[in-house]
Amino acid sequence: MENFASGDVKTAQLLLNSLCFVSESMFRQELTLRIRTVLADGLVETPAALYSVQSYDPPGVMFHDHVVPVVSSARSMGSELVVQNVIGAVQRSLVPCVKIWDAPELGILRQRQVRSLAFVSDQAGSGRECEEYARTWLRNKTIRSWKSLQLVKFYLVLFSASEAGLRRLRSSGLYDEIWVVRHGMDFASAQWSDTERNRIRALCEKYARRDGEGLGWEGSQGLAVFEHTVPNNLPAILRQRKGPSRRSGGWASFFQHRTAPPELMKELVGYVPAHDRARGLRALGQQRLAHAGEARTHYHRGARNLAEILGHLAAGRRHAEQLARSVSLSVPTAEEVIVQMRSWGLIDARNRLTDAGWTELRAAKAKPRRVVQRLQGSEDPYYPDSLRESRWP
């Protein structure tokens, strides 16, 4: 906190308290389960091949001698290596049930008539890396021909993605389908007021060493920190080694050289900001529901925060990714909740509230009935203080 002027310390503390520290075990388990579900449930056509998303220097170099794809290098960052390890574990666990291969070369893709290329990455902040990765594949004339003839499809599996990054990737048209484990972990999904969000953005830009880098890579405004790597889409003030000017003196970096000190991760790994249910509902204009609490919801049956979920669905957040981000769930969990609510008849096939769903939501908003205690009987004689005048003439 000594990096900041006294008037900016409170804002800097809010930024630090909003970071999400993802453990490597959580990353591996949830990403592995997501990939297995996508493959085992037949969401992609098989045979399929799995690859870890990477950035390349120079851009466009994908195949050695136009045959063998580049899948790793000595310069690979921690996330790429961990993702490759996850892919290998998934491939071994699903064979021979599902025909998949871990990063085969071009000849094997042709020989085994692979129909799906599934690319896997830890996150999409700006979405640029995953977008360029797909374009790099398409620079090969064979792959481009297969894609044009719909002989092969591109898929993407991400552990986390920002709203802006996901929008960019889907609008690019490069991927036939994209699956995410965690949606958010960025400025847009943080439970800040508009004033707090503006103050934090101003803080990041004010103290950034270089103009245009204050909000992270391409302004992606990330808040996720992985145990195995510190992403470059975090605000620069968390990663930079020097202050905003030569006269600013030394700068105490929270993450030095994009690595998290082991003693720091030991204390913080697994930390995520507490979800404020009432604040989220008030932001939707659901004042009564925010004040009512969860106790008046009829359909408990193992569903967490059902009244809150109904409120967000009523506000139009019907896609699993939108719902997951709004109520701090993983996307697979949000998908399970939606399926369960359909089985209860609370929402229809388009995730719109049914009559039963609206009834449940109104019940959750209703004020509790106040029960007035009955008069207690007494053996003492009663003497009226006054008499009412007769209404009859």
Looking at this protein, list some descriptive labels:
15 helices; 9 strands; 5-stranded parallel sheet; 393 residues; two-stranded parallel ribbon; alpha/beta
- Order of strands, main sheet, comes to 5-2-6-7-8
Strand proportion, as a percent range, falls in 5-15%
Order of helices and strands: HEHEEEHEHEHHEHEHEHHHHHHH
Query: Helix/strand/pairing class, anyone?
Result: alpha/beta
Compact description:
This protein has 393 residues and is an alpha/beta fold. 39% of the residues lie in helices and 11% in strands.
Could you describe the 3D structure shown?
By secondary structure, the chain is of the alpha/beta class. 39% of the residues lie in helices and 11% in strands. The protein is built from 15 helices and nine strands. The chain has helices at residues 9-17, 24-40, 78-94, 106-111, 128-138, 141-148, 163-172, 194-206, 262-268, 277-283, 287-292, 306-314, 320-327, 331-343, 355-365; strands at 20-22, 48-52, 63-64, 68-69, 100-102, 116-124, 153-161, 177-183, 224-226. Strand 7 (153-161), helix 7 (163-172) and strand 8 form a beta-alpha-beta unit. Helix 12 packs across helix 15. Mean pLDDT is 82; it is low at 72-76 and 298-302.
Question: How is the secondary structure organized here?
Answer:
Elements: H1 9-17, E1 20-22, H2 24-40, E2 48-52, E3 63-64, E4 68-69, H3 78-94, E5 100-102, H4 106-111, E6 116-124, H5 128-138, H6 141-148, E7 153-161, H7 163-172, E8 177-183, H8 194-206, E9 224-226, H9 262-268, H10 277-283, H11 287-292, H12 306-314, H13 320-327, H14 331-343, H15 355-365
Parallel strand pairs: 1-9, 2-5, 2-6, 6-7, 7-8
Antiparallel strand pairs: 3-4
